[in-house]
Amino acid sequence: MEGIEPMDLLRSNLSRVRLPEPTNRIYKHECCVSFDTPKSEGGLFIDMNSFLAFGKDYVDWNYRKTGNPVYLHIKQTKKIVPEDGPLKKPILLAIGVEGGFDNNEPEYDESYSIVVLPNYVTLPFPSVELPEKVRLGVDAILLNEGVEKKEQLAAWTADKKQVSAYAMNLQQIDNGVIVPPSGWKCAKCDKKDNLWLNLTDGMILCGRRNWDGSGGNNHAIERYKETGYPLAIKLGTITADLEAADVFSYPEDDSVEDPLLAQHLQFFGIDFTSLQKTEMTTAERELDQNINFDWNRIQESGLEVEPIFGPGYTGLVNLGNSCYLAATMQVVFSTQSFCAQYYMNQNLKMAFDMAPADPTVDLNMQLTKLAHGLLSGKYSVPVSEKDGSAAPKADAKQEGIPPRMFKSVIAASHPEFSTMRQQDALEFFLHFLDQVERSNSGKPELHPSRSFKFGVEERILCTSGKVAYNRRLDYILSLNIPLHEATNKEELEVSQRMKAEKFSEGNKVEEIVRPRVPLEACLASFSAPEQIPDFYSTALKAKTTAIKTAGLTSFPDYLVLHMRKFVMEAGWVPKKLDVYIDVPDVIDISHMCSKGLQPGEELLPEGVPEGEVQASYLVADENIVSQLVSMGFNHHHCQKAAVNTLNAGVEEAMNWLLSHMDDPDIDAPISIGAQGSEAPIDQSKVDTLIAFGFHEELARKALKASGGDIEKATDWIFNNPDASTSSDMDTSTSDNTTPTTVDMGLPDGEGSEFPKPLHGYRLFGIVSHIGTSTQCGHYVAHILKDGRWVIFNDNKVGASIDPPKDMGYLYFFERIKG
């Protein structure tokens, strides 16, 4: 608008300026449709009506879509600071906060201005001449922390300790024990460090032994197992600041807070005000382990990795324990299906135009943003090129892009992924594919997650000689690791003998030999016959032992193998199998093709005779009933709850009970037709389960057993294979060559009709994990790109020298075409 003074132009658009309210989400650190920031060449433009942020190349899109013309422009310019100061040692397990890890990030000068579109008319800020509404709005934006940092704070802090359930009523035994202020030693060995005082009996014992032989001798935890005395405090961590003391709860398996710690210590004559700190707390030890973490096992033994830059080689910033997300998404966007959907066939403008008013909450927009960030090469440049300095090629690094908005969207429906805690990469991968499929539910031909989906057929052979077939869909092939198939058994036996000798001598084990299991053995275990005890045979009208085998009815474009390295030991104690998997570059899984119903095979009769159904389900599980009764519920009501949820479990029965407490017939005797009197199942939920590949009868039964909850219904189906064998199988015809709706439209979805070509797959991606469980440690991806292996370790991207093919947690294979 030529001829109008800038200030008059601004005043004429004041109706489009809003003052932020406490509930408004203000974005000021990152563009909503790209990874531009105030540090970018064009700075960042914040819409003073919607409070969304846009880079210079994208702000005009927002103006044309919304008509909002007034923007706060923020530009950050790097300060020149001498680099001769000493590095500070972290004292807090945190990133980017006082006392935490120093990110060594440069400092920036920040400048502001008011910009009015479409002609980018600029007015300086601060200025007393600006309208008060604009000044107040800008001040509020600048004072606000920004939703990016509120949702994904770049910090990693140990979780706040919870008050122990055993602290307030802790039993203390008056056995005359008085603990001296120093000179402690384990009561069962000569250990003088890593000592724990049991707060019940006052016994001082050593802590746990580490995997390499270091640490204690397990005497403290063995004492707990003998006595059940729950709380212990680490000697050497007790000072006048009792909150910093390390109290551990064995039954809760965590560091805890003891509000009565002073009283509990005084019981054993401990004057905590006079003690000096001599031992690291668990959190400090965690910090120390992270500083000295042995990354070499997955970073190729510390070899120098040559950095790589350019399209497809962009790293992802670790937002705080987000390596599970980074490793998974790097592999996902190395597939043709996801690249095509969110990069080649859809640009940022298309995604923005289709997005709702707030593009930050739109999965399609944020996936497209992430794809363009990773694949365009725009952000994959050496830091030295961005700031104008020169750096040796070997030392060059990139900043990477922070997937904050994507993480926020994908985690919205999953409370665990919303936290800053480490997560299971497999669980995230499955959740991600599920969300992509849901977002494309109206256009199944478009969603790229189908390239990972395949059909599984289970054949169940009854002792009557008759069979049943059960079909389902899956995204991953989860494989047991048969340790008895290790190829280095002699070497393992020698190692075990040497390990036992060194332990008995109190020496550390210098080298650990791990079992080596061929991948072929793991694949064979998937198809191997498996016994099903207590299988109800509709032919025998009785329970028997059946034999189950499995095969594939379709072969996906991308096959994901999950190695079950985490198993449950006795007492539900999780353990990670320390094992190597010998994985070839190419595998052939033709032998896993399901044969379907064969000539001469006779199917088990469909369904269960009415009398058998009643006998089977109208008897309440006494374990469920007794647990509910112990909670204070009426015995008859508990029986009715168990019957009406088909004995699915305590939680399901309780949910039914709580929702039917006021039923007029709650006290009526349990009748034969009790199950038939239930309220009708929501058909939309039935349709959802059918869309997952389950048959309608099974879907209704599962929803009924789980109180109408889809997620619990899915769990019920997988936890009750006997139920699925009579409902989720293709028994409508003796000719099983016709594809069912379960795998219709998938690659090779024709099942046994397919003419058995070479089903070859080439390894192209590995997600490896280091740590004792999937909820801790670190994830790294190795991907075959342009004929060479590349390591993606958060924001570090480089040429791989020795990819850890035998250490994978998830293996990604691409089907060999032709």
Automatic annotation (TrEMBL):
GO BP annotations listed: protein deubiquitination; proteolysis
Biased composition (Low complexity): 722-743
GO molecular function: cysteine-type deubiquitinase activity; zinc ion binding
Residue span of region Disordered: 721-747
Keywords: Hydrolase, Metal-binding, Protease, Repeat, Thiol protease, Ubl conjugation pathway, Zinc, Zinc-finger
Active site, per annotation: 323, 778
InterPro entries noted in UniProt: Papain-like_cys_pep_sf, Peptidase_C19_UCH, Ub_carboxyl-term_hydrolase, UBA, UBA-like_sf, Ubiquitinyl_hydrolase, UBP13_Znf-UBP_var, USP
First-level EC class: hydrolase
UniProt-listed Pfam families: UBA, UCH, zf-UBP, zf-UBP_var
CDD domains in alphabetical order: Peptidase_C19B, UBA1_atUBP14, UBA2_atUBP14
Residue span, UBA domain: 619-660, 680-720
The reaction(s) this protein catalyses: Thiol-dependent hydrolysis of ester, thioester, amide, peptide and isopeptide bonds formed by the C-terminal Gly of ubiquitin (a 76-residue protein attached to proteins as an intracellular targeting signal)
Every UBP-type domain range: 162-272
EC number of this enzyme: 3.4.19.12
SUPFAM superfamilies, alphabetized: Cysteine proteinases, RING/U-box, UBA-like
Role: Recognizes and hydrolyzes the peptide bond at the C-terminal Gly of ubiquitin. Involved in the processing of poly-ubiquitin precursors as well as that of ubiquitinated proteins.
Similarity field: Belongs to the peptidase C19 family.
Record-given protein name: Ubiquitin carboxyl-terminal hydrolase
Organism expressing this protein natively: Rubroshorea leprosula
Taxon lineage: Eukaryota, Viridiplantae, Streptophyta, Embryophyta, Tracheophyta
